[in-house]
glutamate formimidoyltransferase (Lucifera butyrica), 302 residues
Amino acid sequence: MAKLVECIPNFSEGRRTTVIEAIAGAIKEVPGVILLDYSADASHNRSVFTLVGTPEQVKKAVLQAAQQAVNLIDMTQHRGEHPRMGAVDVIPFVPIQNVTMDECVILSREAGAAIARELGMPVFLYEESATAASRKNLAEVRRGEFEGMAEKMQKTEWRPDFGDKLHPTAGAVAVGARMPLIAYNINLNTSDLNIAKAIAKIIRESSGGLKFVKALGVMLEDRNLAQVSINMTNYEQTPLYRVLELVKAEAKRYGVGVVGTEIIGLTPAKALVDSAKYYLQLEGFDGDKQVLENHLLRSNNG
């Protein structure tokens, strides 16, 4: 069986369709790479792409997509609700089939070196690829965002792993290797951003909340709704339903409810099955055997 790697690059553009399609086109041009999904959020002014293929081909596709971002996105003009530090903001590599995490770490370092060398963007390695414990957490790497990154990079502890100067219009990028992550957003029926920020602080691990949860409060200007924007780094240890129920409980304190949730990009089926088991109160349910598609897939694979 072939080696397969997933990559989920995030770009700081969620409003201009022509730019988003140009990035998608750069990925589609690479043989052997499948663009599984891409979506854009105007309020966040951000797009998320999910592609899969052999390690070398995925690396090539990401470099071509990053080149488009450098050419077409000017961070000095960028405004959006999501924290960001670069035109291509983060590039995580995820092992899928016959690939180890160590191999993805090597791949991320090769990609990072190429981005700095060929595109002139400084690169910070994060998560499993991090060269220091302080760089493992993406939020810490990105802190200061594009506007404060040049000054931050002057500090010895925040010199980039590759490159030495902030790109004047494309900024900087974080590149790393990690396990599958779920980008899960919960929308509240309030326009009070402080409520979303307070709930985010309660649920995130760094503030003493749920393990494997990163969260912040943002404003969806087009809907006039506050949102708890969440990254879940281990959905098996901290499932979706547990996060949702805690957010509902905390929101109730403010007389606020949840009007909807969303998953950005792709998600493992098990994360959804686990939530279905919880809310349907299923007893003895086996997702591998009792979900029709999963059962057929297992049968086809012998």
